[in-house]
Amino acid sequence: MSDFFSGSRHQIDVIAHRGGKGEAPEETLFAFANAKQLGVDVLEMDIRVTSDGELVLMHNPTVRATTNGWLPVRCYRLAELQKLDAAYKWNPDGLPEPPHRGEGIIVPTFRQVLEQFHDMRMNIEIKGWHPFDAKKIAKKFCDLLVEFEMTERVLIASFHSPVLRVIRREFPKVAISASTFEVIRFVVSSRWGTGDYRPNVAAIETSSKSIDRRLVETAKKHGLKLHAFTVNEVDDMKRLIALGVDGIITDFPTRLLELLSGRTPSSS
After folding, report:
1. 135 confidence band (pLDDT: 50, 70, 90)
2. What is the pLDDT of residue 1?
3. How far, CA to CA in Å, does 73 sit from each of 85, 115, 134, 205, 266?
4. Residue 31 and residue 37: Cα distance in Å, rounded?
5. In the chain, fewer beta carbons within 10 Å around the N or the C end?
6. What is the C-alpha separation between 122 and 118, in angstroms, rounded?
7. Buried b (16+ CB within 10 A) or exposed e, 176-196
8. Among the options 17, 100, 160, 227, which is catalytic?
9. pLDDT tens sequence across 34-50
């Protein structure tokens, strides 16, 4: 099994969703630095590609949800994209002015993330790549993993099978998480079938609402890691910890870390 699943400092992996977007501007170096300082186990992120072929972090197809821009990521060259303010919209407390607007927080490249956080494990979803350039971009992604010695420290997901085929060919042992179809089939097999279905992956990542004792036991029977998303309420975290999941993906890693350390979470 990949080294991705070893070295957790906690009972379960604390996975900071988009860097912990409830506590810092999502998918930014600022957020990842905050999550690392908190002591999370894994940084979760999404990768898209610019018009000039650079790998950058952004969850949505367009930049309008988080920045002062509005076009699709694919319409920007990297230099243009990094002129945008990646903290422009982040304002969870509804303050008169977003707290980090104008501080120079940019949309980072994947290379910039690896340069600063190559000592962290990463849960990466590859998004929005067109079939005609999937192999080229996947190769660039793989080259970066090799350059920063990250091939054993990532868990990769993608809806784009050509991308995953390249990654599997380059790194046969890399940790891959199940596709949406595989997750649905696995849950159905566990809940209403024989529970014998096992996708050829290392991990199942699914909504916390679909996780029950039987699903946890089925995952363990097949040697699969089970991660729950996106879990922000303390009561839900407690239930999943008691069930024995392997990781929790959350926007609020501080809550989960406090819970795992035996402290009362400061908010819920």
Report:
1. confident
2. 60
3. 14, 22, 16, 26, 36
4. 10
5. N
6. 9
7. bbbbeebbeebbebbeeeebe
8. 17
9. 999 999 999 999 999 99
Largest CA distance in the chain: 55
Gap between the Cα atoms of 162 and 158, Å rounded: 9
Other C-beta atoms lying within 10 Å of the C-beta of residue 19:
28
Residues 6+ apart with CB under 8 A from 55: 47, 48, 49, 109, 110, 111, 137, 140, 141, 144
Beta bridge partners of 46: 125
Token duo for residue 195: 């529970």
CA-closest candidate to residue 31, choices 85, 86, 68, 82: 86
Tokens encoding 254: 């501080």
Is the CB of residue 163 less than 8 Å from the CB of residue 138?
Answer: yes
Question: Could you confirm whether 130 is annotated as catalytic?
Answer: no
Cα gap 263→232, rounded to integer Å: 16
Question: Cβ(214)–Cβ(237) under 8 Å?
Answer: no
Task: Report how far residue 247's alpha carbon sits from residue 238's, in angstroms, rounded to the nearest whole number.
Answer: 12
Provide the 8-state DSSP code for 68. S
- d(CA 173, CA 249) in angstroms, rounded, equals 23
CA angle 170, 172, 176 (to 5 degrees): 105
pTM: 0.96
> For residue 244, is pLDDT > 70?
yes
In the three-class reduction of DSSP (H, G, I as helix; E, B as strand; rest coil), residue 216 is classed as helix
Catalytic, out of 59, 100, 160, 227: 59
Among candidate residues 135, 118, 171, 51, the one with its CA nearest the CA of residue 126: 135
| Tokens representing residue 86 in the block | 């990646």
